[in-house]
Structures are given as structure tokens and as C-alpha cells.
Specification:
This protein has 116 residues and is mainly beta. It contains one helix and 14 strands; from the N terminus they run E-E-E-E-E-E-E-E-E-E-E-E-E-E-H. It has a single domain, classed as Hexapeptide repeat proteins (UDP N-Acetylglucosamine Acyltransferase, domain 1, 3 Solenoid), CATH 2.160.10.10. A hairpin with a 4-residue loop joins strand 13 and strand 14.
């Protein structure tokens, strides 16, 4: 499910065997990958395990960044270039690295929150 003004860049991929919701003005930049499933490696049959996921309003998954299965991106969160989110991203925080770590709070969030 996508809200209004959602943007997907060139070659961005959302693998969604379970529902993935995207809030208003969410951005997934070029070649980013949102992965909604994995496999149970402890089971010899290697069954698929999928997770519902959400990308909050005003979030930004930057170019070539990846979001692991079951990870939710909070409202206004930013996942930097080539970073890998292995845990939920808190709202209005900027993350970078592999695995992604919080760097700083996003500036200007009050004006966006009150505008909606």
C-alpha cells in the first residue's frame, strides 16, 4: 500500500511476498533494495519466511541502501548511501553504515509533522 507522493528511483526493488506499506512522501532511491523475506536456514526444507514491513512518511532510503527482512523504517528516518538496515530505524534519525548506526537527529521535523 502506498500513500500519496511516494517515489521509487530507477532500479529500486521492493521484494514483498508480505505487504509493504509506504507512507506519504516516502522515497526509495535508485538501486535501493527493500527485502521482505528470507529463508529458515535451520529447516532442511529451507522454507520462505516473509514479513510485513512499513516505510514511514517522509522517510528516505538512499541509493544502493538495503533494508533487511522485517525491518521497519520510521517516519522521517534517513538510511544513507549503501547502508544496510538490520534493525528498525527510529523516526527522524539519520543512519549510515553496515550495519546502519544512528548518526544524528534529522533537522526540521517539526515543520513537516505539523504540515500533515
Amino acid at each position: 500500500m502506498c500513500a500519496d507522493a511516494v517515489t521509487l528511483g530507477d532500479e529500486a526493488e521492493i521484494y514483498n511476498p508480505s505487504p509493504v506499506s509506504m507512507g506519504s512522501h516516502a522515497i526509495v532511491s535508485q538501486q535501493a533494495y527493500i527485502c521482505g523475506a528470507t529463508h529458515d536456514y535451520n529447516d532442511p526444507c529451507f522454507p520462505l519466511i516473509s514479513f510485513p514491513m512499513s516505510l514511514g512518511a517522509y522517510c528516505w532510503v538512499c541509493a544502493r541502501a538495503s533494508v533487511c527482512p522485517g525491518v521497519n523504517v520510521g517516519e522521517g528516518a534517513v538510511l544513507g548511501l549503501g547502508s544496510v538496515a538490520t534493525r528498525d530505524l527510529a523516526p527522524w534519525m539519520v543512519y549510515a553504515g553496515v550495519p546502519a548506526q544512528p548518526l544524528k537527529q534529522r533537522v526540521g521535523r517539526e515543520s513537516v509533522s505539523t504540515a500533515t
